[in-house]
Amino acid sequence: MDLGRRQFLQYGSLLSAGSLFPPAFSFLSMNPVPDLPRATPESTGVLSESIIQYLTEADKSGVEHHGFILMRHGKVIAEAYWKPFERNQVHTLYSLSKSFTSTAIGFAVQEGKIRLTDKVISFFPEHLPETVSENLSRMEVRHALNMSTGHIKDTIPVMRAAQGVSWIKSFLACPVEKEPGTHFLYNTGATYICSAIISRVTGQSLQEYLGPRLYRPLGITQSDWEVSPEGINTGGYGLRVTADDIARFGQFYLQKGKWEGKALLGEAWVDEATSSHIASNPGDGDWSQGYGYQFWRCKPGFYRGDGAFGQYCVVMPQYDAVIALNSESSDMQKQMTLMWDHLLPGMKAEALAENKSKYEELSALSNSLSLTSQLGSNGSPLVNRINGKEIQLAENPWSWKSIKVNAGNKGGHILLDGSRGKVEIPFAWNQWQVNDHRIQNPFNNPNQAPIGSRVAATAGCIPNGSLKIRLKYTEGIHGDLLTLGSDQEHEIHVNFLYSMSEKNPNNKDNRAGLKGRLTS
């Protein structure tokens, strides 16, 4: 994986349940959207057994999966969610957002609003540096699309760090060390510039522009997208849609830009956007097969949009198939290898005889999948001591004044109170309890304002008596493991462990814990 992408993954791992700026616009359809058509795997020439093998291996792989959809011949033949993740919940896409931004550029080209050979600087004369380098002057829209802007480092960290400065201005001020078109570098700032170009030429946000052109026709009904300080959708990350929406998006590309028989985006653009325009990374893996317009090529000859921690839209024209996948992955290549090894051998050219027993087995497996919820016993002396009592907190980055745990036989809730108001999070003992509304991560990185998400929680007590509560932000991928302990009778501490830090100890969680004292 290239340096730019590794840097973005490291940066993305800091975002926790949300990012710097909350979404400013949600697209909601006014009309009910019909479900995608369904079929049995065998009726489309796919062995149920191969899907069972894939789901089984994915479940025990050590890589955390959240949702999976497999479509063939335009029909959903398998769908599974690992509890507490559920169907019809939006899910953060990270860099899979880039493929949607590319699609917006395609619509703008089709409508004659821009050309791929337009110079990037031509759109932003008020943001140009005092001296425009020769390489910057040569940078075209197509270079931003295929990650060949000429930068040798991803520009997004610089753009985000420049407080009070336009991200566009910061991007244009970054040195362009190489001639555009000659050097691949995964550059999320380049995708932001594509979003900014859409806003400049249409007078709309990227999200608004895609509404009538993509979202409404496809039935994408509850998307939202983060914005920068200057009010522009972040483009390279920050979009949230459902797994079903990802599948629709992939099917739209598989059908060469058509939906329900109507051509929305030209076939020529789809072919061009999903072809390799530049060599990507050294080696022989799935990041080494070339890069298109915000789409990666895959080793078996497919193409995909993908995002950090395992968000996938895989389009397989040779098999007339699409895969949508969400996860919190610590090994994205492993996930693709699992798909290739187990799903592809089960795809046949012709319809197969129905296999009722295997299909029932597949259905049962799909409905039984769950992230681990076991944490310990249903109580401890510590829980008895603090149950229902207010714990006054010392000064902390989140301005929480107190925390209270109310626990019963089946579970309970934690209640936080402070200058941000009150937040109540329900939990169950050793099983997931999902709240019915969105909350913001109460323990986010203080430099970032989190996005609202439904949260799931499970709890248990370990042998030393400490209470563990695992939180999972089901619309934002990540989560936290809280550990409440006590070294003295009235002193209580709460430690945090970020979910990606739990998966990878090298990814340190630098947040300070909470310290408190029982009031009685």
List keywords for this structure.
3 domains; alpha+beta; 6-stranded antiparallel β-sheet; globular; Beta-lactamase; 15 helices; Lipocalin; 9-stranded mixed β-barrel; 520 residues
Describe the model.
This protein is an alpha+beta fold and 520 residues long. 27% of the residues lie in helices and 23% in strands. It contains 15 helices and 22 strands. It has helices spanning 3-12, 48-59, 97-110, 134-138, 141-145, 156-161, 167-173, 188-202, 206-218, 243-254, 267-273, 332-342, 356-368, 381-386, 499-503; strands at 23-28, 64-72, 75-81, 91-92, 222-226, 239-241, 258-259, 262-263, 296-297, 303-307, 311-316, 321-328, 390-393, 400-407, 411-418, 421-429, 433-434, 455-461, 467-473, 479-485, 491-498, 514-518. The strands form 4 sheets. The chain has a 9-stranded mixed beta barrel. 48% of the residues are buried. The model is unreliable at 10-30 (pLDDT under 50).
Short description:
This protein folds into 3 domains: 40-89 and 246-370, 3-Layer(aba) Sandwich (Beta-lactamase), CATH 3.40.710; 90-241, Beta-lactamase; 381-518, Calycin beta-barrel core domain (Lipocalin, Beta Barrel), CATH 2.40.128.20.
The CATH architecture name of the largest domain reads: 3-Layer(aba) Sandwich
Question: Roughly what percent helix?
Answer: 25-40%
CATH superfamily of the largest domain: DD-peptidase/beta-lactamase superfamily
Q: How large, in whole angstroms, is the Cα Rg?
A: 24 Å
Indicate the overall shape.
Answer: globular
Q: Please report which band the strand proportion falls in: under 5%, 5-15%, 15-25%, 25-35%, 35-45% or over 45%.
A: 15-25%
Identify the CATH class of the largest domain: Alpha Beta
Q: Major sheet: order of its strands?
A: 13-14-15-16-18-19-20-21-22
